[in-house]
Amino acid sequence: MYPMIKIEGVRHAYKTPAGPLPVLDGLELSVDEGGFVAVVGPSGCGKSTLTRLVAGLMKPDEGKVMLHGELVSGPRSTVGMAFQNPVMLEWRTILENIMLPLEIVATKMSKAEQRERANYLLELVGLEGFGDKRPSELSGGMRQRASLCRSIVHKPEVLILDEPFGALDAFTREDLWQTMHKVKEEEPFTGVLITHDLRESIFLADQVVVLSQRPARTQYVLDVPNTGPRDLDHLYTAEAADMLNILRHQIEVAQGRAAA
Q1: Does 223 reside within a domain?
Q2: Total domain count for the chain?
Q3: CB neighbours of 43 closer than 8 A, spacing ≥ 6?
Q4: What CATH number has the domain bearing residue 34?
Q5: Within a domain: residue 186?
């Protein structure tokens, strides 16, 4: 059986006036169906490039990116994405913003069913009653919750999260971590999370992949035990402390500040 996401020997470089800038170098990554992988690494190592490759927004110079055993050759309707900046259209209500992907992706849902699903997702993330508001009327955390709804409204198989909580304050960020577990339980998907927050990675993911310095390769893989929904107390256990120490050391290795 094929994993949901399979990246094999991917190499990629950006064209610059000074010549090619290698970003990924033989990257390997595998995510089983229903799995949730967090990707961490030094700033600028190519994490966001990885998300664009999985989403089919760009093609690698070498290697393969596979979804469900099929080569990714372009954007796919089975992939949802949420970013650090939850861009919303101010002239549309929150409910209309959430329904936007359903205007782009082919769906068999009627207009009434689309509204019903969008309202259900708002309730799921704690925004019941805010569907008729405009984006400027919501806080940053609330807009990010709405952005999460928008990313899964079309029921994607794969959800890519590119630092969606990075700009939020600590309390809002931790609250959204718990919301993510709730969403994952009610709306199953295979997830890839890009983050700089090591606590976030072990709280949300089943597995943490550490990338090396650019051009990135897979440097280290940490399996997170006791996966599934958990509370914040999990982050203050001896087990969590050990995982964080391992990841911090691996980041220092990637940055060239420590020996492997």
Answers
A1: yes
A2: 1
A3: 196
A4: 3.40.50.300
A5: no
Dig out the tokens for 83 from the structure.
């970013």
Nearest residue to 5 (alpha-carbon basis) of 241, 227, 193, 253: 193
The SS3 call for residue 192 is: strand
Return the exposure string of 59-74: e unless at least 16 CB atoms fall within 10 Å of the residue's CB, then b: ebeebebbbbeeebee
Q: Which two tokens stand for residue 155?
A: 């029921």
Give me 227's structure tokens.
Answer: 């996966």
Average pLDDT value for residue range 45-66: 89
Residues 151-192 pLDDT 10s: 999 999 999 999 888 878 888 889 899 999 999 999 889 999
Segment (H or E) for 11: strand 5-16
Q: What share of the chain is helix, strand, coil (3-state, %, to 5)?
A: 35, 25, 40
Query: Encoding tokens for residue 245?
Result: 């120490």
The pTM for the full model equals 0.91
Question: What does the block give as tokens for 205?
Answer: 């993911």
Instruction: Specify whether the CB–CB gap between 155 and 107 falls below 8 A.
Output: no
Whether 39 contacts 88, CB under 8 Å: no
SS3 call for 182? helix
Residue spans of alpha helices (H) in 125-212 = 140-152, 170-186, 198-204
What domain range includes position 258? Answer: 1-76+197-260
Rounded to 5 degrees, φ, ψ at 55 are -75, -10
The reply to whether 167 falls in a domain is no
> Is 259 part of a structural domain of the chain?
yes
185 burial class (0-12, 13-18, 19+ CB within 10 angstroms)? exposed
Joined tokens for residue 184: 């994952």
Q: Please name the residues in contact with 60: beta carbons below 8 A apart, sequence gap of 6 or more.
A: 10, 11, 12, 24, 53
Q: Which carries the bigger pLDDT value, residue 73 or residue 1?
A: 73
